[in-house]
Specification:
With 263 residues, the protein is mostly beta strands. The chain has four helices and 15 strands. Strands 1, 2, 5, 6, 7, 8, 9, 10, 11, 12, 13, 14 and 15 form a 13-stranded antiparallel beta sheet that branches. Strands 3-4 form a two-stranded antiparallel ribbon. A hairpin with a 2-residue loop joins strand 3 (27-28) and strand 4. Helix 2 (34-47) packs antiparallel against helix 4. The longest helix is centred in the N-terminal third of the chain and has 14 residues, at 34-47. It is globular. 44% of the residues are buried.
């Protein structure tokens, strides 16, 4: 396992073509976390763009991606003064595993919002939260430092709250300073909110769209996940990410399959 910066670094091998050795430190079981994969795609998209930040990402996850060699292909769609867009594909074993339409732009770190209609996620102080790590250890839980609001973790004790909501603090365990690609990881770092509705096991994301809203300040990120509907084997999850300056820095929405029970 390497640090986040090294684990998401892509090597340019040609025009719009990159290679990477995907890091097992971001796996949950055998499957690599979708936020980690989106961070990898964002690195390539920004490298191929005249702009500095992944403003909007709409990612389709076609199949399980595992640790090991992979390629990233960046196919530009438009390049403008304020925004550029590209279709970015992660390929493993000669098959596309993730496709993402990524729009890049450059945000001003000093910009103040003209309007802010939402309040920060109500996460208790870090010291009052739970550092939950699976007993088996390794993988994703060893790469991210997450402290969970105990009131949203009843499913751990077999007492799901009935409310599809999970709140937590997030940072990298290796001390890597939070950046734009960290936000891609943060929006998909929470356990599935459907666990609080009695679902069990791993929930495969089918499609996830996330937006970067501001350059994050250093320090912990507050992450708040909610859901609106679980029906016919599908559930939605919305996530807001707030920085230490009290700013909304990222937001996402995904559609996923109900977690599959462990055998």
């Amino acid at each position: 396992m390497s640090g986040f910066g090294e684990a998401t670094a892509v090597e340019r091998v040609g025009e719009g073509r990159y290679e990477i050795d995907l890091d097992a430190g971001y796996a949950i079981g055998e499957a690599l976390n979708g936020g980690y994969l989106m961070a990898v795609l964002a690195r390539a998209a920004v490298d191929a763009s005249p702009h500095a930040h992944p403003i909007s990402t709409a990612a389709d996850f076609h199949r399980v991606t595992k640790a090991g060699p992979a390629q990233v292909i960046v196919d530009p769609r438009k390049t403008g003064r304020t925004a550029a867009s590209a279709l970015v594909t992660l390929v493993q074993d000669d098959r596309p595993v993730v496709d993402a339409l990524i729009t890049t732009g450059t945000l001003d770190a000093a910009a103040e919002p003209d309007y802010a209609g939402a309040a920060p996620a109500p996460v208790p102080p870090v010291d009052d939260c739970t550092d939950f790590r699976p007993p088996t250890g390794g993988g994703f839980a060893d790469s991210v430092d997450m402290r969970f609001d105990r009131t949203t973790m009843g499913w751990l004790d077999g007492q799901p709250s009935g409310n599809p909501e999970i709140r937590a603090w997030f940072r990298h365990r290796d001390g890597y300073e939070i950046d734009a690609c960290s936000l891609a990881l943060a929006v998909d770092a929470l356990p599935p909110v459907a666990l609080n509705l009695g679902a069990q096991g791993w929930a495969p994301t089918v499609e996830l769209t996330w937006h970067m809203r501001a350059v994050p300040a250093p320090g912990w990120l507050a992450v708040h996940g909610t859901g609106r509907l679980l029906a016919d084997g599908w559930f939605d999850e919305e996530v807001e990410v707030w920085d230490t300056a009290g700013r909304l820095v990222a937001q996402s929405r995904q559609i996923a399959r109900v977690p599959r029970a462990r055998s």
